[in-house]
From TrEMBL:
Its EC number is 3.1.3.-. Keywords: Hydrolase, Magnesium, Metal-binding. One of its GO terms (molecular function) is metal ion binding. Pfam families: Hydrolase. The keyword Metal-binding applies. Its cofactor is Mg(2+). Gene3D superfamilies: HAD superfamily/HAD-like (3.40.50.1000), Putative phosphatase, domain 2 (1.10.150.240). This is 6-phosphogluconate phosphatase. Belongs to the HAD-like hydrolase superfamily. CbbY/CbbZ/Gph/YieH family.
């Protein structure tokens, strides 16, 4: 879901309108906190170096937030210019639009794509797009029962350490 879509839900459920500058304020606050605290998941640089397949990012975050966070974590150069946002399609995850858009831009048939996802709605989107999806549970935001939820959503495998990703992909 895009930030703007989530704001609409918040407004509807809370019964009030957010200030007009809310998005800009939140974006600036998130950017500053990312600059101060954001770190790449352990082992991700090594994993990306070891994977020779074409790579992209297809995220619900807006394009600018993606650019900033990928640069802060020194991941941008692994993916650029193949960084895609839900703001570029009609419907965000769990709809398949974003993944299908990314596959088209990467000139790769959907059934030849492998998606690495850490969210249930992301896995649902990848499955709906006809893509193979592997669940990642190594993020600090993943609760103990997260693996089961990702498998129920359609992940074909689960891994918890980024250093295992090249081996997981090699086993497909």
């Amino acid at each position: 879901m895009t930030d703007r879509q989530s704001y609409s839900i918040i407004e509807a459920e809370a019964g009030f309108r957010l200030p007009k500058d809310h998005h800009e304020y939140v974006t600036a606050e998130i950017t500053q906190r990312c600059r101060d605290n954001l770190k790449a998941v352990a082992g991700v640089h090594q994993a990306l170096e070891a994977i020779s397949l074409a790579k992209c990012v297809a995220s619900s975050s807006d394009v600018e937030k993606l650019r900033v966070t990928l640069k802060i974590t020194s991941l941008y150069d692994y993916f650029a210019p193949h960084v895609f946002s839900a703001s570029q399609v009609a419907r965000g995850k769990p709809a398949p639009d974003l993944f299908l858009f990314a596959a088209e831009k990467m000139n790769t048939p959907a059934d030849r794509c492998v998606v690495i996802e850490d969210s249930v709605v992301g896995i649902q989107a990848a499955v709906a797009a006809g893509m193979m999806v592997i669940g990642f549970i190594g993020g600090s935001h993943c609760p103990p029962c997260h693996a089961e939820k990702l498998m129920e959503a359609g992940a074909i495998r689960i891994f918890s350490h980024m250093t295992a990703l090249p081996r997981v992909l090699g086993g497909l």
